[in-house]
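Sat 14:20. Reprocessing the chain from the morning session after the first attempt stalled halfway. Input below, unchanged.
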Amino acid sequence: MVSIWLRSIGIKETYIEKLHEEEVDGRILRELSEEYLKKETGMKSGPALLIIKKRDELVINSQKAQRQHDNLHKESSGKNDLGASAIKSIDTRADVNEDNNKEEDSVLNNKVVTTKRDSKLRPFEMKGADFTYVKNSVLLPESGVSDFISPCHEYKSFATAATLDRQRLQAKFAKEVLKFATGCMNVRTNGTIHFGVMDSRGDTGYVHGEIIGVPVEEKDVYYDSLDYIDRSFSSSDSELVRLCIGDPQFVKVVGSNSNVEHYEKWHILVTNRFQEKDLQHIDFLLNMNIFCVFDFDPDSNVLGLCHEYNEHHVVNRHFMQNYKIPSGLSIRDFESHLRLFDQTSWIFCNGRSDYKGNEPPCDEKTWVKTKRTLLKDCVSLICKDILPKGTFQVIFLLTSPVDTPFLNTFYEFFTDMEGHEDIICLAESEENFKDWQRFALGSCDMETVNSSSVVGMTISQVNATLQQVQPTTTRATKRLPIYAKGECFLYTREEETRCSLEILSLNHCEETSPDIMESEKEKIEQQFYHGGKVTWMNLWLADKKIIGEVIQRDAYNEVNSMVKDCLCWSVDREPISCINIYHHPGSGGSTVARQVLWNNRRELRCAVVNQSKSASVVSEDAVWLREHEEKDPQKCLPVLLLFEDCDQEYLEDVKNELEVAVNTKKIARGTLCFILLSCRRSHNPEKMCKESPQQNVSITHKLSETEKKQFSKKRQRLEKQFKPEFILTFVLMSEEFESHKIAEYVKKFVKHLLQDIDHKSVVTKLVLYVALLNTYVQNSFISQSHCEALLALSICVDRFRRHAFETSLSEQAKLVLIHLRDENTYINSVRIIHPLVAKEILQQFLGDKQQQSDLALDLLNNDVLFEHRFGKDQYMKFLRDLFMTRHRISKGDQFDSFFSPLIEHVREKECPDKAIELLKAAYKRFNEDAFFAQQLARLNYKHDRFEEAEKWAKTAVEKRPKNSYILDTRGQVYRQWFAAKCKAMEQNEKTPENTVDALETALKAIECFQECKNAAVEDNDTMNNAGFVGVVEVGCALLNLMRTLHVFSRRKSSELIKYLLTDYIPVEIEEPWAHFHCTLKNLKKIMLEALEWISEDLSYFQTDLKTDEKTSDTVERTIKNSMHCGASLITDQNQGMLNPLMKRMLIYYHGGGNFTTIFSLLTNQKDSNPVSVLEHIISLYPSNPMMAQMPQADLVNYIASHFALSCLSAQSSKLAAFQNLQKLSHQFPKEKQRCLPSALFLLVLLFWPEEHDTEVEKEHKYEIVLSAVEYLQRNYDKKLKDIPPRKKRIYTHFFLSNGTGFEKFVHKSKVETITKLLSISEKRLKWFSGEVWKMPEISKLLRCVTGWTEDEKVFLEGPKGMKFHIPALKSSSVPHNNENVTFYLGFTFKGPFAYKITVQK
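Finished this time. Tokens:
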């Protein structure tokens, strides 16, 4: 209370906080001296003098008030004279809850008492309906006579009397009024007697003047009670007495806790010109969650409300035409585009005087002609598409005379909100209000208008009144830690600018009103243990010991230790560290993550990332947060960012953006700038942890012995406080989710739950819908607005909205549904308390009577839910995911699925027909979406319904002809169909005639895959190699079919080769295959092109950190296996009898057909001796390659085979001299743009200078290398397209070593043998992070070269001072200054790269 008083007299916040830290309460304030304030707090003389002066005035006034009160009591016992009036104040509510919350001490009545918030008295002349009191706030002390005009005040609790019967109640009321009235008349003064205000001096738990209210059921009881007064006087006197005693005034008393939900909703403000004097009293507006302002003052941005509000909050200035959604833009995207839920939107409805665009103000007639429609559309969009009914309130502030446009705004809101219950009017001027009232009466009755209007209060009075019931205040400025161990302020306006981050401050939650905190604490705790997400309020209340502690699982200490380890300085410390939490659903992973942030907020700057914002925006805001109020970017506290259930790709995007920012700012090496804490759901968290224990932490349902004790103790306490069914999620946790225990527990719970449930009720249907979504769609929910629409609820009084919704639910629904609230939009929603409960509900409720497909179809066809406009985007996404989204282990799911889990369940547990029926219904429901047609094609071919699959694939392609993934599905239909036809012919002799159908299907598949690969090449945003792989695989299968025909049997294997590669056509197939000959003879070319593309792709790029290793292995096997079918036809022939073409096919068969398969022999050594294989491959080439004039591709493979053989056996007799290969490479095209990328890569290796080279030789070699590198980089840029490089990491094939010739290069496979004991993920992590270079074995193996850095670029010194720019693999490793450096060299298909760049000392 002392803090509030200090603010009221204008003392600076810094001094207030200092006195708060010194624990100065009301009692201590009485004893303070000016000298103490200056000496101990560093306060200037001015404010110290002011505090002492105002303190003394307060003491004197309170003593004077007490004396007046005593005098009034004495006077009121005299005779009944006439001449004064008594006004009664009383509460009209029947559900006021008492709240004995105590705050700080305050100087009051010349003694120290525990008080609540101060409250101003209702002005004497104001009607009771126009004013509101806040329960448990405190009025000034009772007062006596002062100037015969200012009224006296008398308080009566009336708590006991209010419980009496009607007659005794009236008698008691009349007696107290008459007693007070006669006292006032005796001293000839005005007065007010307040009922429902404590006058007790005893130990009642209340303080003098505390407002408690009186329950009132019938107002007539009090009006009629005044008849008792008439009987106390003669008929002539009673008339005069009644003139002096006014009618009772009923003043509403609201509990502060009843206003929590009210003030946590959105407010829409409609206003015209503000008076200058009123702009100083807008604190109540600053404390509101204002969604938007309809401002009819053209000067508002310069001199009016917008200008003043913008000093404290960020505003986005719009015009009404901005609220028209562009074609094709979803509501969610539109909201993001205008930042509607991030910052207050200020809509200038009648022009803007300072705007240089064409938006001048206009007169009423012009406005109606030109802007009335814009207003209508704007209001309609907000009320019907953006904010559900009941989540917002419209406040009309009549601060100036009203005009037609202003009044039209009321009409539009009244129409679109379907009523007046959420509209409030505040008017100081009676005249302005009457104009408003006349217009409003055209839409609603007088009582409705008057009951929702407050008239006669000045803005300053409104400001003072409303601030008493607001849960938070903008005056409580947030604080952040700084590098120098102190603190700095984070002002509201600055925070709002950074809308991609939820910033956690040192004093987070401390701005919450104690009244609100006390009233909400139990609900907050129950919500958490019922299955809700942990909130900062949970942790704050637990810290303050107001509620029980939140258990810290063992994983908390693991994560916290990792965070602390990151803070240890090291010269090799990366500027950005990553920590991953993988957790079983419902095991407390998000709680651990938030506890880590909460408990580190004093040493780090902490924030939760809003993933709806782009990675670049998050990076920008994170950099700002790190440097806020810090003088030196090199000396800032690290920022701890939490990503909850975040896609790995998004996390990598943010990390990449932050790395660029750190490098741009030239932050010194070894400086930790950011810690990215990712918390993700996983069905196998322990496996994820083992793959990379240095940065991963697993959280499972299994409890340690320590945790078991903690959970057992906590459970005992909670079961005393709450019913077990309302803390089910915690109970499940304490049971460890052990399969037998938990299954039985959940089964019993659900069985008991469903015993008396009404199977036909709409509430039960709602529970089943939510259970279905929660079972199959991660993090799904249904908005309360959707639920109300389904239940056909019409909520008339907003403050009872949540209550009305909950009342409409069955007891069973109340137990299993938990209420959620979007922290950004404030929109409420529901979900089942736990996925296991949702799953069990479906199993027990449906049983054998109803199948899940029927329930899903019912949900899909529910028009009320599907057409409901609010939250439609989110609902549609969940519904779409239910039928479309597949499970992925990489996304944290338990398994990879071919279809959505629901479709998988239906086709396996019910029947394929049901699954197909479901997808057909979804296709129709989602406007014949191409991707649902694609799913139908896949589902049909999975069940050998190829005609249907063909039809749906064709439909999908017609709708999305350029989508490579849909084209791939069409190819897969024909591929699977071809395979089925081949299988059907297995028992029969194959002839040219009976294979025609299968042949045609295979060629259709190849044609579709070619279309797929062409679309993939043209698409600059993706890399999809499915079409290339499909061509090769179907081609191989087709060759296998052809070789089984008698005409192409093994005895005549040369016939097939001859047919495929020449103009020759055997007589047996000439007629039957007449339509296929041209395509079949082109098959070799088609397959080789596809193989070359796949090989080249693998040569450029490596799989990403989180990509399944099988991806590249599968493609490599496809490449190798592709030639088995053809080459196996000639393996039994004598090598001397082979023609060049047959030799080439054998080279492919043994793995020498392209760059990728050649070097894969170095790592895939399980099946054969790679040295022998490579020697055999080399022997198949011409014995005199210089004279053979081999094609470029054969030259590349020949030279690459030698490099591969040199890695395994440097002394092999088949190994050609290095110089001979250099000479042979001169046969590559002279024009480098005609060279294959693999040829350019080999040129770099062959002509990389050596130590013993002369200067002339070095210069010549460098020219070749530089030319090759130039074109390598061009080809790389073309290959990468528009895909970020981090998504396709360049693959390093060789490193520079210390030898000469072949020995000056080390293949990556040899380096990887050093890390072979590590897991795949750990190995990749060491490579990506640079940890691998610190291993001593590496330094012995590789050659360290010297160079320098200039303008943050690395250069290698060439002959005659030539500069050779070597890109750094990690740009963050490049020193910001110009330095001499050493580094390792790696060779990629983009050219050489620098690794482990170290500044020379």
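The chain has a mean pLDDT of 83.
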